[in-house]
Amino acid sequence: MDVVKILYSDVLDLWLKKHSLRISASTAYNYSKALPTLKMYFKGIYVQDITPEMAYEFVQTMIHRVSSQTSVRLYCKVLNMSLRYSVSC
Q1: For residue 88, is pLDDT > 90?
Q2: DSSP letter string, 15-52
Q3: Model confidence over 3-58: pLDDT tens digits?
Q4: Which residues does 14 contact at the CB level (< 8 Å), separation at least 6?
Q5: Greatest CA separation for the chain
Q6: DSSP state of 55
Q7: Closest Cα partner for 11 from 65, 47, 58, 61?
Q8: What is the C-alpha to C-alpha distance for residues 20 and 28, in angstroms, rounded to an integer?
Q9: Given this model, what pLDDT does residue 49 score?
Q10: pTM for the complete prediction?
Q11: Which of 13, 27, 54, 72 is the right S-S partner for 23, CB 3.0 to 4.6 Å?
């Protein structure tokens, strides 16, 4: 059986579109602000190829790059929820 490969950036878009139906508009807006950074970091990477080590490195990069702990938590939350969503696709 062939596995369909999907880019993580596409998963992010699908996840936000579906998840936005169940959350407030302001929460969806906050999540959408994290997408460009996640898309840039994981640019050209298929969701199936993202490893726990890659996710850890992303978090470490954000801890050192972003001054706000709230922003780091937002990135982590969106990464976590979108990767969980990708498993269900």
Answers
A1: no
A2: HHHHHTTSS-HHHHHHHHHHHHHHHHHTTT-BGGG--H
A3: 789 999 999 999 999 999 999 999 999 999 999 999 999 999 999 999 999 999 99
A4: 85, 89
A5: 45
A6: H
A7: 47
A8: 6
A9: 96
A10: 0.92
A11: 27
Contact 28, 20 (CB under 8 A): yes
Say what the pLDDT of residue 1 is: 54
65 forms beta bridges with none
Contacts 24+ apart (CB under 8 A), 42-51: 42/8, 42/9, 43/9, 44/7, 45/7, 45/8, 46/5, 46/6, 46/7, 46/8, 47/6, 47/7, 47/8, 47/11, 47/83, 47/86, 48/3, 48/5, 48/6, 50/8, 50/83
Residue type, 21: L
**Overall residue count recorded for the chain in this entry:** 89
